[in-house]
Amino acid sequence: MSDVPAGTGPAQEVPFEEIPALLLSMVLECTDSIAEMVHQPAETAVLTEEAAVMLYELLAGCLTTPVLMPQLRSDIPDTHLLTRCWDFVERIVNHPSQHVGGAVYFEVLDQLLLDSGLVKAAWPYMKQRTRASTLLMLDDADLSLPGINRREACAEQRQRQGRLASPPSFPSAADLTTADAEVPQPISTGGLRAGGANRI
């Protein structure tokens, strides 16, 4: 058993088999869904090996669908509940087990892409590791959300810089004369653009 109290410490210190119990302890609103899924009291179910093996189903059917999504779509969300949900995700989002990492990615984070406003609604409650994973997911999906990731802003900034200053270019050695070498000549802007186009 882990010596790390529920709700504290780095994600790597949560043993795989203890994750269902951690979910129940941090998000009590999952109790009924867990009991229905495994046909036994939630307090008992989360201690079984089966619950850990069913982590994909557990996160989707007991956290994301019945608890997390309704709150993110609500006009008056329970901020304390959302904080606890994302605190739980933060504990396991970088778990060394691929089974756990995949469950968090596909059954929690990826579900935020179902509606355009879900990432923005969740963002204030996410902690550092969860935000980092969400940014990677948005980049992989080629999505740019104002106020969330900066790719769109960076692209616009690069375009503005490109219009203000052309990249340096130099004439070939065959075009240089002795006089040219002694006295630097102005560089043609048109030649710069033509020469730089193939390097982008």
Labels describing this entry:
mainly alpha
**Ends distance:** 54 Å
Give start-end ranges of low-pLDDT stretches: 1-12, 164-173, 176-181, 186-200
Mean pLDDT: 80
| β-sheet strand percentage | under 5%
- As a whole number of angstroms, the C-alpha radius of gyration is 26 Å
> How many separate helices?
12
Question: How many strands, which pairing sense, and closed or not: the largest β-sheet?
Answer: none
Sum up the overall morphology in one term.
globular
Order of helices and strands: HHHHHHHHHHHH
What quaternary form is this?
single chain
Task: Give a structural overview.
It is a single chain. This protein is an all-alpha fold and 200 residues long. The chain contains twelve helices and no strands. The radius of gyration is 26 Å and the shape is globular. 23% of the residues are buried. The model is unreliable at 1-12, 164-173, 176-181 and 186-200 (pLDDT under 50).
Quick recap:
The chain is an all-alpha fold and 200 residues long. Helix content is 57%, strand content 0%.
What secondary-structure arrangement, pairings included, does this model have?
Blueprint: H1 19-26, H2 31-38, H3 42-45, H4 49-53, H5 55-73, H6 79-92, H7 98-109, H8 118-122, H9 128-140, H10 151-164, H11 178-182, H12 189-196
Helix pairs in contact: 1-6, 2-5, 5-6, 5-7
